[in-house]
Amino acid sequence: ACHALCAEGRVWLVDPVDEPEPLARAAALGRPAGVMQLLDRHARDGAAIAQRLGVPHLRLPDAIPDSPFEAVSIVDVPKWREVGLWWPQTRTLVVPEAVGTAPAFAVGEGLVGVHPVLRAFGMARLRRWEPELLLVGHGPPVAGSEATAALHQALARSRSDLPRLVAKLPALIRSG
Predict the structure, then answer these.
(1) CA dist., res. 143 & res. 132, Å (int)
(2) What is the DSSP letter of 24?
(3) Smallest Cα–Cα separation from 90: which of 1, 2, 3?
(4) Residue 171, φ and ψ in degrees, nearest 5
(5) Which residue from 26, 17, 22, 11 is spatially nearest to 68, judged by alpha carbons?
(6) Regarding beta strands 10-14 and 31-37, do their DSSP bridges make them parallel or antiparallel, or are they unpaired?
(7) Residues with Cβ within 8 Å of residue 21, at least 6 apart in sequence
(8) What is the 3-state secondary structure (H, E, C) of 105-153?
(9) Cβ-based neighbours of 119, under 8 Å, separated by 6 or more
(10) 122-142 tens-digit pLDDT
(11) Which of 62, 114, 130, 133 is the most exposed place for a label (fewest CB within 10 A)?
């Protein structure tokens, strides 16, 4: 999923693709401020969109200048660099890949699950946030009082849900 974050009339695009309808919706929110690529392999159309809009393209940023967002390192290992965003004023957490709500992620009873490849590692570093809005790269967002509980439950079940993931793998592969 791509996201448009609007603060004080300025809009930051997260991992966008060059599709007219979502870009038009984002443009209606306010003045473009930047385009962020938060996962090393999510190059997509971000650089071209940033150039067209005349705004910075921030690839795996350590900081987002002149914004309300904090860049946070989520995964930093060879072949997987992932940065998340924390927006303290709105308690919004953006996680492009490490957790998601799509069926391949949320294999247990909860709304959110840890990425299949990261389950063995637990992703404890995400426990420090208590979001009211969780925006993920795979699946719909989780909002309200459920967001923190769903995130923390997913982190706590990361390893124990591995058998459920293995059991669901054939169906997940068939569904594409």
Answers:
(1) 6
(2) H
(3) 3
(4) -65, -40
(5) 11
(6) parallel
(7) none
(8) CCCCCCCCEECHHHHHHCCHHHHHCCCCEEEECCCCCEECCHHHHHHHH
(9) 158, 159, 161, 162, 165
(10) 788 899 999 999 999 999 999
(11) 62
